[in-house]
């Protein structure tokens, strides 16, 4: 991992640590959770949605979401990418916070995790909700003067963890 003193991740980590941005992200996620709950989807906790390779999809998030997530979530139960499929644990390319079929980061998971359900028929409203709340998230960035970047979840986690929160720009970590 490189600890680049000029990395934009310093700014995302710093923004995520401010009370105003923290409150704005929590409020946005709460609004989305309520909108999802109104639609009443069922989650069977199959874990399929987090096995990205098997399910044939990728999770995309914003860099600010990753910074916010990393500042609030406990470390993953196993090192990221550890290959222990025989135990049902995280494989390379899957989310490090999935253990067995369960999400161990449920309360702080990003927008895409909150809106995605594998239940047939839910796709009708998922796309609409996702686009609406992604627009709100973009507006949140603009309102707080935060650079916007949209990137793949697992690769973004690895990139962000190379620049620890609390390492000020200009001072190598
Ligand atoms: S944060 Fe939770 S819901 Fe999202 S991909 Fe990881 S394990 Fe799945």
Automatic annotation (TrEMBL):
Domain of life per record: Bacteria
Name used for this protein in its record: YkgJ family cysteine cluster protein
Organism: Phycisphaera mikurensis (strain NBRC 102666 / KCTC 22515 / FYK2301M01)
């Amino acid at each position: 991992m490189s600890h680049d003193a000029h990395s934009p991740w310093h700014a995302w980590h710093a923004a995520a640590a401010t009370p105003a941005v923290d409150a704005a992200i929590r409020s946005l996620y709460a609004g989305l959770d309520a909108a999802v709950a109104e639609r009443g989807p069922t989650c069977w906790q199959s874990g399929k949605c987090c096995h990205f390779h098997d399910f044939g999809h990728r999770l995309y998030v914003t860099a600010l979401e990753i910074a916010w997530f990393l500042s609030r979530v406990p470390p993953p139960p196993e090192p990221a990418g550890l290959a222990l499929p025989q135990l049902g644990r995280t494989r390379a390319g899957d989310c490090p916070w999935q253990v067995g079929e369960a999400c161990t980061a449920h309360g702080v998971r990003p927008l895409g995790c909150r809106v995605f359900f594998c239940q047939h028929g839910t796709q009708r409203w998922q796309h609409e909700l996702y686009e609406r709340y992604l627009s709100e998230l973009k507006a949140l960035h603009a309102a707080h003067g935060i650079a916007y970047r949209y990137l793949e979840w697992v690769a973004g986690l690895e990139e962000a963890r190379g620049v620890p929160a609390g390492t000020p720009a200009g001072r190598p970590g």
